[in-house]
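FAQ: What does a multi-protein file look like?

Like this. Sequence, then tokens, then the next protein.
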Amino acid sequence: MLDTWAYKNHEPQINDIVVFHHKSKNQDLVKRIVDWPDGVTQKDEQWFLMGGNRKYSRDSRSFGGIEQHQIVGQVKLMLLGIGNNDRLSDNRYLQPVH
């Protein structure tokens, strides 16, 4: 479930899981907001995003930070999770995200 009003009155926070529009790929992606890593020049008003599968994730390490207007909303509840081999993950049904 996605809260599209989550950031109307306040900014996103570190560890929020968000859906954002990736303009160069013209698609929406789901990633976690994290602190900017050491040695990476932080741009004003941009957020650094990382995927859960860090080894293979296409995230801010490859496309840089995103601006707040690209964020569609905050993920509040995961209805189901996909694990290895594109199968449903055990114990990942109707779970709040942290």
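And here is the next protein:
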Amino acid sequence: MNEQAPILIVRGLSVDFQTRQGRLRAVDNIDLDLHPGEMLAVVGESGCGKSTLSRAIMGLHEQTPEAQVSGSIRLRGDELAGKTERDWCALRGDRLGMVFQDPMSSLNPVYRIGAQVAEVPCLHGGVDRRDAWRQAVESLGGVGIPSPAERADQYPYEFSGGMRQRVVIAMATIGSPDVLIADEPTTALDVTIQAQIMKLMLDMRQQTNCGILLITHDLAVVAQTCDRVMVMYAGRIAEQGPVKEVFKHPTHPYTRGLLATIPGDDPPDRLPAIPGQPPELKSLGAGCPFAPRCDLAQPHCGERHPPLEGTPDHQVACWEREVRDVQ
């Protein structure tokens, strides 16, 4: 267990959207702690609330009648919930950094790469444009972009997907943030580039001791790089704990189903799959949202949602956890 005080503390975080079908809760009462130098993975199928959670922590859900964020988000003791957009703008890029899922849509196609990276020190570092450009070139070189001075003068379309992702990482880390949120940073990249991107993030963590919240579908990346893992399903936490503990002793049936899809040294002809589909938020009942897909579900599983319980290190939300622990 990490003995340092958490750098980020989230309590009771929920995100509700008003739709034609009524109010939908995309993120439901999430608690998490992120410690300095720690990499916490958030995993789950598409639509389980991972990206919505990350955007809420970054203050990117504007409070309107159609979108409501509730709960507490504390960064080094500073309560972020309720801050104005101006306050959030001062935090993003400085104390909070984010690597978005699609690097092409994260970069402005009509501005040069160097100008986009230099914007962060200009806004938060109080430096002039010349010094900001110099810092941008250094940052591009730091993420492994060759000839950074020349490449800084180019446009996003002149970069490959992997190079664009490096630029996004440079933008997210040039301000040395306390917390870096990486939303699928290796999506659509080949295996070699994926490994390079993850090494960049691990090196940055070692150099700055920042906390990293990694959102990913790649359980192999989680096993190789992360300290703890949080499994989400239907906007809620299904299981969380140290990566080694959860991967060795998965307790929630959903976690077991996810891990069963990882090919081993001698994979079968056909990998097992979790039956059914994730539930629609409008149809969630009072019980466990995974019950319709669970092979051990009992009648009471559909009546009440199980609490998140367990040891301080390893918690699971499952009524049948004791049965599964014995098996």
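Q: Is there any per-entry metadata?
A: Some entries carry free-text notes. For the entry above: The two ends are 27 Å apart (CA to CA).
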